[in-house]
Amino acid sequence: MQRHGFLGGSAALRIRVTGSVLLVAHLAFVAWYALRPLDVPWVLPPNLEPFAGIRADLALGGRPAARSIGGSLVLLAPLGVLLPVAGGRLHVSPLASLLRTTAAAALLSVGIELLQTGVPGQVVDIDSVLLNTVGVALAHLAVVPAGRSRLRRWYRQGGREGLLQEEPAQGRTPTIPRVGIAP
């Protein structure tokens, strides 16, 4: 059964549950990675000027810039796919899905940056929020619309029975011939 654009059936439920479990696992990793104390000899001041850290990284050039910028882009990027999978909506506006996912990622990134203010060795960086959000949006755009389109096509071409009926049929039900009432 399909209501309000949600996938129905046990296979769809397994997809949503798997997406939710992977989402929780990824968020636990992000919390560990971003909120663990660092033992550093000095701490840089917070970066509250947009693009200042990105410009500084690009000035370094080469591998350090790619590692810093790429790391921020990739950190929350899986949320671009995992949030829609955990939501389980099949029929939804691509723009609404992108905006909802990007907004959730931006709020999560801001929350992480705010929590970092109390962690030794971690510094607040507005560029991390921007790059995390862009990474989520890029991952969403690269995977989700094509995945939904493929699922909708599969669902229309008979995959619906596969979603709704998981177990093979066990044969005909035996029938008992009718017996009349005794005198």
Automatic annotation (TrEMBL):
<feature type="transmembrane region" description="Helical">
    <location>
        <begin position="12"/>
        <end position="35"/>
    </location>
</feature>
<feature type="region of interest" description="Disordered">
    <location>
        <begin position="162"/>
        <end position="183"/>
    </location>
</feature>
<keyword id="KW-0812">Transmembrane</keyword>
<keyword id="KW-1133">Transmembrane helix</keyword>
<dbReference type="Pfam" id="PF04892">
    <property type="entry name" value="VanZ"/>
</dbReference>
<dbReference type="InterPro" id="IPR053150">
    <property type="entry name" value="Teicoplanin_resist-assoc"/>
</dbReference>
<dbReference type="InterPro" id="IPR006976">
    <property type="entry name" value="VanZ-like"/>
</dbReference>
<keyword id="KW-0472">Membrane</keyword>
<feature type="domain" description="VanZ-like">
    <location>
        <begin position="24"/>
        <end position="142"/>
    </location>
</feature>
<protein>
    <submittedName>
        <fullName>Integral membrane protein</fullName>
    </submittedName>
</protein>
<feature type="transmembrane region" description="Helical">
    <location>
        <begin position="65"/>
        <end position="86"/>
    </location>
</feature>
<feature type="transmembrane region" description="Helical">
    <location>
        <begin position="129"/>
        <end position="147"/>
    </location>
</feature>
<feature type="transmembrane region" description="Helical">
    <location>
        <begin position="98"/>
        <end position="117"/>
    </location>
</feature>
